[in-house]
Amino acid sequence: MDKDLVDHVIWTANAVVASGAISANGHGNVSLRVPGAEEMYFTSAAGLKGLTADGIVRVGLDGSLREGELPPIQGAVVAMHTAMYADRDDVGCVIHTHSPYATAYAVARQPIDVWIEALAMFGLADGVPVAGYGPRGSEQAVAEIRSAVRPGNPAVLLANHGVLVFHRTPALAVLVGGVVEEAAQASMNARALGGPVAIEPGLRAAALQRAMAFEKAGTQSA
Questions:
Q1: Domain of 101, in residue numbers
Q2: Is residue 152 part of a domain?
Q3: What is the pLDDT of residue 203?
Q4: In whole angstroms, how large is the CA radius of gyration of the chain?
Q5: Is residue 47, in this structure, part of any structural domain at all?
Q6: What is the pLDDT of residue 220?
Q7: Predicted structure pTM score
Q8: How many CA atoms lie less than 13 Å away from 34 in the CB half-sphere?
């Protein structure tokens, strides 16, 4: 396996853990698309905490194991990663976690609305949808995910399971995972003050446009 890609997977796992958007036991998995090849590097370890190179395998986008050892319980969720790569050419990284607050919404089968500006800024101007329940890793589960994901949307809740985020780069995927968890946590805290209030739809596009303007300005000044 390519050492640079392995190191990038480990960096991504460490970044997820550092973000706090992960359950106490660290359960989750990360994958990176291999540039120019129909394959991905995937975490075969039980969790993301303390991930080492031994916990990473090479898997074809057809789901076939190409290098390493993949326990069945981890292999069961490979299909939801490969589905995102198959459906979205722009996706370079997929992350799955059971981040506590967002997973609470998944368990309640309730979508996350645009309660914080960052959701609108990072591609979730319609909030985070919920994919209907299907047994873990089953064809039904993958079909529900595909049905729930909207064009350009980088995250989805998995009913009674957890969270799936996917983006162009690992850094962006980690960022979105943290934003989703922050929105879920803020909404629950806001219930003590009368409940969360979503940003008005007409103002969500303005938040995105300002974010893009700042990004462009930063690129030009670099």
A1: 3-114+126-191
A2: yes
A3: 87
A4: 17
A5: yes
A6: 46
A7: 0.92
A8: 18
**Sequence-ordered strand ranges (E) for 23-181:** 28-33, 39-43, 56-60, 65-67, 93-97, 130-131, 155-158, 162-167
Is 90 a domain residue? yes
Q: Tokens representing 22?
A: 């992960």
Q: How many CB atoms lie within 10 A of CB 41?
A: 23
| Choice between 203 and 95, residue whose per-residue pLDDT is larger | 95
CATH no. for residue 78? 3.40.225.10
**Residue 44 lies inside a defined structural domain of this protein:** yes
Determine the Cα–Cα distance for residues 150 and 205; give it in Å rounded to an integer. Answer: 16
pLDDT tens for each residue of 117-129 = 999 989 899 999 9
Distances (CA, A) of 68 to 5, 53, 65, 122, 220: 14, 10, 7, 34, 43
**Residues 129-148: pLDDT tens digits?**
999 999 988 999 999 999 99
Domain count, the chain: 1
